[in-house]
């Protein structure tokens, strides 16, 4: 098939949580697509710069030659276009607002705190950041109890918007746990989330698109080494 | 009517762009509601802390005693609940994604730059920030041309999501222009936006909820003076 005939393309990277979540959304809806690996950190392709000239970031979904940017918005788009498959967002407006609230919280508040872990200059600073990351997880535990209503996922019986968005960070949570000798997702402190994590990682939609933890760890060490040598 | 019988309440502040945009959304949909003025900067009420325990911020829409937080999400909620009135978001998924892209850009990229104006330490730093604010407006000019398709508003014949979100900052744009002796919205550089601004400010949905520029300026000077005296 010639590239111009391909209806759905995803410009992404195997290691990016933002890209992984879009892959999960497409998989949930059984949308056939071409995955185009872009360089995560540098040497952005002309194709990416043309598709996302404002933010110059992956992921970009290209559907009928039109680019859709920003992973949360791409998931909403997928849900609105491919209405045949299982829903990503709930149908009730209040539940939709709640799902959007938590995905926004995860991306704008919780994840930026987790990113600070790398920058923490000493053990004390690191402990403070870890405390905040865990505070966020405790809030998300309460959100899980409320949203799942005793079922397996935030989305109920199936994975939904919050599952996909929070779950997309799992690979990096595992890397940080491994590198820092930490336990972020703890069965005693956040039993709901710990159980959810296991179910999520073995879900059909997830396991095929989720990167190998060892491969992610290797990638992390490589990027870190490159940063140190160019600093 | 006893407060518990009121179906829709808005915890907001007359001077907050985030609150003003929700007022516009409710007005567009002709939703009767009780407006509850909250302190913008300090002394947060127990009511607000209970309604938005995570971010502790206005606006919060309370509908059937359930709180909905985050202004962009509240506008989506209003659009989904009160479907009888004019639409806030477009119906086409690609146009919805585009509208969400620009509202997210405005709130997360453009407005944070504008906020730096206050912190600029000297004329050079100020000129750099102004340059970036204007760069953003030039992007928004192009977005206006694309989204409005020759009609009056981003939303076409009527005000929509981008109109409400960008327009909610108008009061503060005018304050910054007035305080700094600037012209941010310029008819030569961004003719589409300049014309749009006039139409927007005289629109039914807008003019009744929009604060008087002189009142906003007074408020700005008061807050600034309070900051200086407490620094």
Automatic annotation (TrEMBL), chains A, B:
TM annotation in the entry: none
A Gene Ontology term for the protein's cellular component: cytosol
Cited CDD domains: GST_C_Tau, GST_N_Tau
E.C. designation(s): 2.5.1.18
Gene Ontology MF term list: glutathione transferase activity
Keyword set includes RNA-binding: no
The protein, known as: Glutathione S-transferase
InterPro entries cross-referenced by the UniProt entry: Glutathione-S-Trfase_C-like, Glutathione-S-Trfase_C_sf, Glutathione_S-Trfase, Glutathione_S-Trfase_N, GST_C_Tau, Omega/Tau-like, Thioredoxin-like_sf
Family note: Belongs to the GST superfamily. Tau family.
Position of the signal peptide: none
Subcellular location: Cytoplasm, Cytosol
The protein's enzyme class: transferase
Residues annotated as domain GST N-terminal: 6-86
Keywords attached to this entry: Cytoplasm, Detoxification, Transferase
Source organism phylogeny: Eukaryota, Viridiplantae, Streptophyta, Embryophyta, Tracheophyta
């Amino acid at each position: 098939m010639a590239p111009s005939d391909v209806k759905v393309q995803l410009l992404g990277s195997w290691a990016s949580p933002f890209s992984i979540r879009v892959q999960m959304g497409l998989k949930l809806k059984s949308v056939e697509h071409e995955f185009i690996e872009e360089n995560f950190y540098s040497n952005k392709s002309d194709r990416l710069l043309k598709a996302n000239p404002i933010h110059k970031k992956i992921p970009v979904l290209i559907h009928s030659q039109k680019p859709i940017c920003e992973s949360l918005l791409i998931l909403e788009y997928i849900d609105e276009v491919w209405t045949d498959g299982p829903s990503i967002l709930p149908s009730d407006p209040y539940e939709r607002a709640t799902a959007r609230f938590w995905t926004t919280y995860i991306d704008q508040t919780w994840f930026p705190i987790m990113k600070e872990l790398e920058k923490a200059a000493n053990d004390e600073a690191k402990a403070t950041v870890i405390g905040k990351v865990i505070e966020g997880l405790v809030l998300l535990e309460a959100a899980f109890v409320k949203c799942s209503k005793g079922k397996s996922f935030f989305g109920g019986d199936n994975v939904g918007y919050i599952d996909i968005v929070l779950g997309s960070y799992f690979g990096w949570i595992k890397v940080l746990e491994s590198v820092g000798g930490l336990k972020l997702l703890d069965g005693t402190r956040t039993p709901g989330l710990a159980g959810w994590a296991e179910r999520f990682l073995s879900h059909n939609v997830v396991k095929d698109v989720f990167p190998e933890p060892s491969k992610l760890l290797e990638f992390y060490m490589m990027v870190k080494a490159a940063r140190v040598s160019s600093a």
